[in-house]
Write a structure and sequence with these properties.
Uracil-DNA Glycosylase, subunit E; 5 strands; 246 residues; 8% strand; single chain; alpha/beta; 10 helices
Length: 246
């Protein structure tokens, strides 16, 4: 979540990194990976029914503009009552890479753009100074499209309900490499429940797409000593994208 130094490149990560979306429709949305029916009963059945309806709505969206409009009207969970606005995405994804965070923070909720503020500035450095790409050339989104109050962690039900939107985003953007930022996003994208140490430092696959988890920029702001490890992950992603690694 963009709530999770300052300046400097991802090589500075080593020493210390207008939306234009593709409109062609891809394959229809698949059922959410972590829809999680942990317990039987009315609550889980209601969650399943809502999730299935959201999958139908997402599948009906032929491009990212339609999907963003559907997300803006979503009232599936209580976060619709506390958000300022939904936070859909930034960038075009033309470089073949998609970054996925956990959820919007206060700055994102106010501006309607993912990863702004200090964490967003560091992510921008990772993209521009480390990977050598324009921020507009990558695609940036979150698992949740609405900010949880007080920047709390998203609940399992909130993540389950938002899964249809993220799945359809991935299908329409069709990135070659997905970079989940932080443990929550990585576990959600991969359908796992693992520590960050078990997830990062390797290339995973999600429905044929490469997935390279790394630390959330907000965590790097709190733990700058981990920037070297983040740079190793970014290099893995760059190799998968065919970008030169210096």
């Amino acid at each position: 979540m963009a709530r999770e130094q300052g300046p400097g490149s991802v090589r500075a990560v080593q020493a210390g990194a207008p939306e234009k979306a593709p409109s062609a429709a891809r394959a229809p949305a698949r059922a959410a990976q972590p829809i999680a029916a942990h317990a039987a009963g009315p609550a889980s059945e209601e969650l399943r029914a809502k999730s299935e309806e959201l999958v139908r709505q997402a599948t009906a969206c032929k491009n990212l503009k339609e999907l963003a409009s559907a997300v803006a009207q979503c009232t599936a969970c209580a976060l619709c009552h506390t958000r300022t606005q939904t936070v859909f995405s930034a960038g075009s994804g033309s470089a073949g890479v998609m970054f996925v965070g956990e959820a919007p923070g206060q700055n994102e909720d106010e501006q309607g753009v993912p990863f702004v503020g200090r964490a967003g500035a560091l992510l921008t450095d990772i993209i521009t100074k480390g990977m050598g790409l324009a921020r507009e050339a990558v695609y940036i989104a979150n698992v949740l499209k609405c900010r949880p109050p007080d920047n709390r962690d998203p609940s399992d039900s909130e993540k389950a309900l938002c899964t249809a939107w993220l799945d359809r985003q991935i299908e329409l953007v069709a990135p070659r490499v997905i970079v989940p930022l932080g443990r929550h996003a990585a576990n959600h994208v991969l359908g796992r429940d693992s520590s960050m140490g078990a997830l990062r430092g390797q290339v995973h696959e999600r429905q044929g797409r490469k997935v390279v988890p790394t630390f959330h920029p907000a965590y790097l702001l709190r733990s700058p000593s981990e920037k070297k490890e983040c740079w190793k992950d970014i290099q893995l992603a760059m190799r998968e994208l065919g970008l030169p690694v210096k």
